[in-house]
Amino acid sequence: MSGNQTPNPKDPGSFTRKSLVVSSGHRYSYIDQSLNADGQVVLLLHGFPDLAYGWRYQICDLVNRGYRTIAPDLLGYGGTSKPTDLKAYSKLNSCKALCEILDHENIRKKVILVGHDWGSALAFRFVQYFPEKVKCWVTYQLYFMSPEFSEEIHRYRRTIILLLYLHTDRGLENHIQESFARLKDHSFVGENVLRKQVREAAPQLEKIEVKDPEIRYFLSEFEKGGLLGPLSWYKTRDIDHSDEQAASLPASYPAEIPCLYLGASDDPAFPPPLFTEKSKAKLFPGANLTSHIIRGGNHFMHQDPVYRDQVTEVIGNWIDNQLTTAQNRPSRL
């Protein structure tokens, strides 16, 4: 059974937690929260560096709207296994694990998919590998990635420096607490600013004290589990590309599945202008895409006190509207 009450977003212990060992042998920890276990399922996929708990404000809102929310700690994070084999982190293997969680919970109806950052990247492939399982989907703070490898490398050239930096696993692990303490506005910095800030901050790192209880929870989880698992998500491009080629994934997304792209005008990691109208037309030939850009914002605005209510409302209202539209759609019989 899923949790039968609305949790307190400031209390991680108020969320209903479950775990499942999938066929790969990896254990997945996930939140399963609802007021109605038979409610429409919303599957929430977090990004980096985040956890299922990162969706706490959206979970509370969706539960109050009547939805059943399932939010896993993705592989390498939180209470989920942290293998060292990069193949375990492939999008295809992760999608299969999500399907096993849904099957274990006896969820047979199509789900609503919501992804942020790397969770969005996983959502992209879930929609393509298992379109029959998705009613509609939300991608938040990441551009759509087609299986065309060379084109994606070109489009993401502005973030290559950041990705290379994130490959220095042990360097980041040595300063987990200090890194989280400096996420004052939950935003990502620009590609050339990151190295400079780390160098300047190094002499003072030992003086930082984290007092925010929500951030302290993230700290405790990452200090226990480290960053080697989470960083593995940045290193599977070759593996994913091989899987995509073998499955002959299309260069566009299913026209019959509605999608919401949610972005922030001030997100330096993924500025909205890079997601061009040409790209939208190519990836969504059925024009079944809605775009919503929040003025200002940042990369983690779903948790930011300034923006999280707006993010929560946009996601909740769009999902509500999709279900209403589907109910009113005339039968083809």
UniProtKB/TrEMBL annotation:
Organism domain of life: Eukaryota
Ligase listed as a keyword: no
GO molecular function: hydrolase activity
InterPro entries for the chain: AB_hydrolase_1, AB_hydrolase_fold, Epox_hydrolase-like
AB hydrolase-1 domain segment(s): 41-139
Gene3D superfamilies: alpha/beta hydrolase
Keyword field contains Transcription regulation: no
The entry's keywords: Hydrolase
Pfam (any one): Abhydrolase_1
SUPFAM superfamilies, alphabetized: alpha/beta-Hydrolases
Family listed: Belongs to the AB hydrolase superfamily. Epoxide hydrolase family.
Annotated protein name in UniProt: AB hydrolase-1 domain-containing protein
